[in-house]
Please model this.
Amino acid sequence: MITIKEIAQRLNMSTTTVSNVIHGKAGEVSEETRRRVEEFLKEVDYVPNINARNLAQNESKIIGLALKARVDKYENLIMDPFVAELIGGIEETIRNAGYFMMLYISRDTEKIMRHVSTWNVDGLILFGMLDDDGVRVSKKYKKPIVCLDTYSMEGLKHFTNVGLDDEQGAYNMVKYIISCGHERIAFLSDNTKGVDLARLNGYKRALEEAGIEYSEKDFLKIRPASAEIEASLDEICHRALDYTAIMCVSDLYAVTLMSALTDRGIRVPEGISIAGFDDNMLGSLYRPALTTVHQDVKQKGVVAAETLLKKLRGEETEAQITLPTRLVIRDTVTKPRKSSFMGRF
Amino acid sequence: MITIKEIAQRLNMSTTTVSNVIHGKAGEVSEETRRRVEEFLKEVDYVPNINARNLAQNESKIIGLALKARVDKYENLIMDPFVAELIGGIEETIRNAGYFMMLYISRDTEKIMRHVSTWNVDGLILFGMLDDDGVRVSKKYKKPIVCLDTYSMEGLKHFTNVGLDDEQGAYNMVKYIISCGHERIAFLSDNTKGVDLARLNGYKRALEEAGIEYSEKDFLKIRPASAEIEASLDEICHRALDYTAIMCVSDLYAVTLMSALTDRGIRVPEGISIAGFDDNMLGSLYRPALTTVHQDVKQKGVVAAETLLKKLRGEETEAQITLPTRLVIRDTVTKPRKSSFMGRF
DNA sequence: GAATTTTTGTAAAGGGGTTTTTGTCAAATG
DNA sequence: CATTTGACAAAAACCCCTTTACAAAAATTC
Model:
């Protein structure tokens, strides 16, 4: 690896001059010299030592992406397959701006913070954190931070959240379900926080508006831990018989549920209508194809990255950016079954 | 951010001493001093400046993961959703060894190489590269490299390939299909290179062994570009009628095909048997559940990372590591239909 | 033509660590 | 008692690049 010092030596000039050429400081270097240096740089295929440069400029050109992953029963980290899209969107955006991406996957906020300070990353994108974790991180570090899908924004001064209009999306879908004639509609999820809560609220609002009463038992709680998933599905499929439609909090759960129902001889949509949320490959390839709420995950990544880049340039950014959803009507929501017909095989 | 110099000043000693304590150089520092320094370090929560350290030590503690992504018709990069698992496996492994992961996604090998040299990463994992790209990269850079799923290993001295026993996996599956009574079995893929070629070869070997003749037209070529996918599936579904089973090169294609067949009124497995390869969520959640060949993608990432870490420690590593596959028998391969019955609805 | 400004280039001072060299002091050795 | 050895710490060099302060040369102004 050739250094700037060597180049200066060989060209019989000072390192400053070479550096000035590299940084395009016009007016400090004669046209003649600039040409000579540039040619030589090309010739030797000069690449600056990034550590030296960062040390001198006190920046890293690195953006950290911290993913809070779930862990399975063996304490292994698990990533949602669909974060790939998100990562892709972020990476593409920041790369075009000359930044690199450093990936941390962890469930430990403390560790993430330590990484950040060690690495001197210029900015941070947080995804999948618990709501207040994001706030805590942002309070401790003064670097620009963009959160994804975070709902509790008490300390929102220091960072931006990029989210989805979850409430409205769920509302629209449930409204559509009701318009198909359904009145007994359950909601399936595994928790009532953050995104899930927002979607639940949208569901409730649609019910209320239609004059349908909501009761606690209409919330079907799935337990996704692999040890419990089967028992959990068993119970849910049983309770599902009381409803004509189920609004699922995600496509993953919708498809999981459809499989479980199919295994138990209950047909979708003849026996029961199912709606999802997210619109990913899982639902679009399934048959019957899933009726769902679309969100553009990649776009979310792009917006998050663009917002962070803005912050890094010192530009003003909003505290909250909300992306829209869109209904995707496919085949799993139809009009409700007549009375007791469950579409059993 | 407190520096080592400040610490030394405040403690009334030299930076060397502090540095020695940090690096645990025993015998160079008195027990008393060491204790004093260590306490103080904890107190001020000292974190070394990574750029300075790397500059001094000429290493980065970064491992680059270069993913060669496909591009869609709008020239956007697309990532396979299931690389998330791979990334997870790699990240977890290297993090435990004190390394960080830097992610490049690109389709341009040149750019990747430039990144690598700019960033002074300690080692590189390449995935999804064209076969010879890996070789080219490894020839140009002397850093340790581990490739995933690369088949052309002409210049294999400098790097290790972590792959799968694709040939054997496909062979086993097709043998199983034949054992179910099938004789007209097609193979579905979009190319005949690398991994796909190996799987095709396994398929051919099983056919040959059973005395079934293979002809060019038994290769069903899918065109996955979004503009052509529908026409492509149309043609394939039509040609599928000549067969009683189709061995698909991946779960994604298997599920895509099943959806297309279902849409055209052909039932799986009553009308035609379908087998996949990879064993991901897509196939396990589909109904009928996909019979497929299992590979542990996360494990692949772990092995790749561990191998690279070995190289970085200067240990010897094999040039080729081949991971096993396992048959997953579910519901999409049964005995062949009688004559012309296609299981149409 | 002397004084002033502009252009062009250099030397030197960081930036924050690591590592080598040098030096001091006390204990051990002969 | 003189000398060697060992433990410890300080000083200085180095990693490579950026940037500031300054000097020399050229161009401009009066």
